Amino acid sequence: xxxxxxxxxDQVHASPALRTEVLTMKERHTRRRRVPGAxxxxxxxxxxxxxxxxxxxAMGLVHADFMDxxxxxxxxxxxxxxxxxxxxxxxxxxxxLERVTGKEDTWIFDSLEEAEDFLGLEIADNGVLxxxxxxxxTACRSNSAETITGGCLVDVTADPLGGQWVxxxxxxxxxxxxxxxxxxxxxxxxxxxxxxxxEEDDPALAMPTPDGGLEVEDYVTPxxxxxxxxxxxYTHLGGVPGDYCSYDAFFVLNNTxxxxxxxxxxxxxxxxxxxxLALAEMKTILDGYQ
Amino acid sequence: MLTEREYTxxxxxxxxxxxxxxxxxxxxxADAEDAAQNVMLRLWRTDTAFQGEEHLRRWLARVTVNExxxxxxxxxxxRTVSLECCGEPVFDGxxxxxxxxxxxxxxxxxxxxxxLYYYEGYAVDEVGEIMGLNPSTVQTRLARGRAKLKTMxxxx
Lengths: 290, 156
Known about the structure:
Chain A is an alpha+beta fold. Chain A contains seven helices and 16 strands. In chain A, the strands form three sheets. In chain A, strands 4, 5, 6, 9, 10, 11, 13, 14, 15 and 16 form a ten-stranded mixed sheet that branches. Chain A has a four-stranded antiparallel sheet with strand order 1-2-3-12, with no helix packed on it. The longest helix of chain A is centred in the last third of the chain and has 13 residues, at 275-287. Classes of the chains: A alpha+beta (290), B mainly alpha (156).
């Protein structure tokens, strides 16, 4: 079978279009040392808390600091922004604690409400999102090519302590389709546990500066929720020039670190075609959190 | 940083490998091509000083797996635009078509280890290093992937 397998993949080649794209890439992409790439790191980093608060009014529970992000998982060295939320640990339900049986896992629920009920947590109350259609989220299990889809996905991390697995963080993902585009909500909590003695790091998201630049807007909702809206702009994505951007709105509510996200571009995989419309709808949603 | 000539030589030599790893990950040629594009852009921009061809080959394999994971884990953050004209591979005979289908019908966690081991010739511990898995996990996935493939081909 090994011979047949090899002969099979001898016939599998990249398309002529990809070959041309790759071989002409050097003509379209200048290089300089430490050029920021287009990769967005959607993983938690342990934050070195040195850094300069970005905006006036950075007091409060959410911070956005420009800093050296250090070495990223792809081996490149990046500068960028670290968004961080100050939260206290939250107590999970007994059945959630019992379900934690390893270092990392992803739990699948049909809806955010089902996840909240199981976890014993209230994550978000938003009348605007309640009027939008909930759409499935997709993620993958760690170190695996398996993708999983569900109405609400919960990434759980844990540590072995005293002969049992003790949850450390939970990140709850779900998504909504609005009138003009989709939004994704990530809500992260630190888990309280009677056995926990380790110092908890704040939930954070590191964003390397993209090739089109990065801007931060301080936004306060009518209900007084303080939000950092980060706009990442790209002039090239996947080797294709264009106008692309994404918006991440970071805030803390109920000791939960939120990232409300959407993206803008002309391809089908982007959720809005117009940046101003995306930002306006994002602020409408933010106004709905209570 | 690679010279232009070095980059062109690397692209011509290893693009198919990068594409095949991504194809085994995603199954969909368009997604595989998007990942391959990103990987080659990283190669063009990397500061890594490669200690020979094998070092470059392994770097590309590892970066490809990491890029596939990155795209997969948070697909709503995918930044690539699909190229046109990238259809399914075409094979000479019915047997090869059936084998390809059987390989692609395997669970994803078996396909990439099988490819790296049987086609690229990496040892178990090398496959583990590329994929971020311990060798015993790789051994298990290879054995189970082989068994499943054999069963699927026997049943046809």
